[in-house]
Design goal:
alpha/beta
């Protein structure tokens, strides 16, 4: 081989090595970039739980006196009721989540106002409106019993089997079958599976690249993922005008006000909370949300979604397009009733949820509480309610009935919501914007009263029978009862009417009066002058 040929081959070899080196460098950089993006801002569904607690289902008890399916508020409330009536009760909770029981309402409200002052703590501590501080979790880790040692524990307690799914219940034989086929027998069982957030067809049918930038909002993982977007100054688009969507828009706007984050809110309805608030108040609320820095886009829907390297391009029904870094879908949720078909349990065809009797039983010794229960309300008919208070109270009553109390559920549950630090409201009964409403408002007060903490898991059933009487305070000042006269809706009360009776009450920036509202609804009677009823709420106090 001559010198020229050797030189040529040496150069070719060097060129090949250089190309391989450059290719390796590019691959490393690309992999690093993808990893960085995944670690910081990708928002697809979190990875499936890779481990369970305990490690295998075979380590779980073969039989338990009390079995709770679902790891949320209703289930934990049932445990508290069981333990208070049976001090040595041994309770096993089965959940497909990787966390111990926690509350959901602060995820879209209080947690954001605490997060702006620092990093999120391991137990997700936040400050309530009362000023008190607490954790998102109902109890710390050490409160719970090891599932493998539950039946050996003398004083009982609650053990949580994390990462397991129930696929079938044999109500006649009292057997629960897990997804892997493991069977557990029980004496009493509660279904408290809650509900799962809905998505939209436009995203469900989208490409994987688009789906990576679309998320729902229901768990601490969702909170942390969205917080990373806000901290990285990404633009965020919220789809939905209900409780979660509206609360989250306001909370994010407040959290990101100094971070130059653009917050969009898109929904096909005409205003925020339009299914709950009368039109005039929905429009006012929409303007209030806009004043907080949210770009609100009512009467708007997403027709198509495309993705490039940097962002999503949303094609809207009005012909315009919107570039955003992430989409948060907040369009309600549907009850988790997948085990109904395999278990022979009835699901309400129109409302969803497991059909239960007055004692919240779906079958003998098998109860349902919380979002997944469809119960009969003696005043308002068959209902399914997705509120924290209902989960607390229905869970507690189911727990009491699991120890033999045989109580009927006749509680009028309440809900509360906040639109930033300046607007808060509570509702009870049928608070439905399709009903006729009568609103009575006072002029805004310089310093509205302090709201209370609505997160207590020991809420009481208040209310009076039809024979109860109420007294009007004649010294209460005049109020504004024509919406057109009120430039600002400072404080007031809205009555929701059906057959000329009050079936729902919403308290606007009024707190500590839900017991009175429950009493008025339970009276189930017609009133000649609703202005007089409004005075009972002392909106000027």
């Amino acid at each position: 081989m001559g010198d020229d040929e050797a030189t040529r081959k040496t150069r070719m070899l060097l060129a090949l090595l250089a190309a391989l080196g450059l290719g390796g460098l590019l691959l490393w950089l690309l992999t690093r970039r993808k990893q960085k993006v995944a670690d910081s801002t990708e928002c697809g569904k979190p990875a499936a739980i890779s481990s369970t607690v305990p490690a295998t289902s075979a380590e779980l008890p073969k039989h338990v006196p009390y079995l709770l399916i679902g790891g949320g508020t209703a289930g934990f409330s049932a445990f508290r009721a069981i333990k208070s009536n049976d001090p040595r009760a041994k309770v096993l909770m089965i959940t497909n989540e990787s966390r111990k029981p926690y509350m959901r309402p602060p995820l879209s409200k209080e947690l954001w106002y605490s997060a702006e002052k620092g990093e999120v703590t391991k137990d997700y501590r936040f400050k309530q409106w009362t000023g008190a501080e607490r954790s998102l979790f109902f109890e710390p880790e050490e409160f719970f019993v090891d599932p493998t040692k539950l039946m050996e524990t003398v004083n009982g307690g609650i053990a949580v089997a994390q990462g397991f799914t129930v696929k079938k219940i044999d109500a006649a034989k009292h057997i629960v079958t897990l997804a892997d086929g493991y069977e557990i027998t029980y004496d009493e069982c509660l279904i408290a599976t809650g509900c799962a957030p809905k998505s939209l067809d436009v995203f469900a049918q989208a490409t994987p690249g688009v789906k990576e930038k679309v998320m729902v909002y229901r768990s601490p993982d969702d909170f942390e993922r969205l917080k990373r977007y806000a901290d990285e100054k990404k633009s965020i688009t919220i789809v939905g005008n209900g409780f979660t969507g509206s609360e989250l828009a306001c909370s994010l706007a407040n959290y990101a006000k100094d971070k130059k984050v653009k917050i969009y809110q898109i929904f096909p309805e005409s205003g925020n909370m339009s299914k709950v608030l009368p039109t005039y108040l929905s429009n006012w609320t929409t303007a209030k949300v806009e004043s907080m820095g949210v770009c609100v886009m009512p009467e708007t829907s997403i027709k198509n979604a495309q993705r490039d390297e940097a962002a999503l391009k949303l094609v809207l029904n009005n012909g315009k397009s919107l570039l955003t870094d992430v989409v948060v879908v907040c369009v309600g949720c549907e009850p988790n009733t997948s085990i109904a078909l395999t278990s022979g349990l009835e699901v309400d065809k129109s409302l969803g949820g497991f059909v239960v009797n007055a004692e919240l039983e779906a079958r003998r010794n098998l109860f349902v509480a919380g979002d997944a229960s469809c119960f009969y309300d003696p005043l308002l008919g068959r209902r399914r309610v997705e509120h924290h208070d209902h989960s607390v109270v229905s869970g507690r009553l189911a727990g009491e009935n699991m120890v033999g109390k045989k109580k009927a559920y006749n509680h009028q549950s309440m809900f509360w919501s906040d639109l930033g630090p300046e607007v808060g409201y509570e509702g009870i009964g049928l608070v439905d914007a399709s009903l006729r409403t009568v609103g009575v408002f006072a002029l805004p007060t310089p310093s509205p009263e302090r709201r209370t903490d609505n997160l207590s898991e020991t809420a009481v059933m208040e209310g009076g029978g039809s024979g109860s009487t109420v007294t009007v305070n004649p010294e209460t000042p005049d109020v504004k009862c024509d919406p057109k006269d009120a430039d600002e809706y400072g404080r007031g009360v809205i009555f929701y009417m059906k057959d000329d009776k009050i079936v729902g009450i919403l308290l606007w920036n009024l707190f500590n009066r839900i017991g009175l509202a429950r009493t008025i609804i339970n009276q189930n009677k017609k009133y000649d002058d609703l202005n007089e009823v409004a005075k009972l709420f002392e909106i000027h106090a």
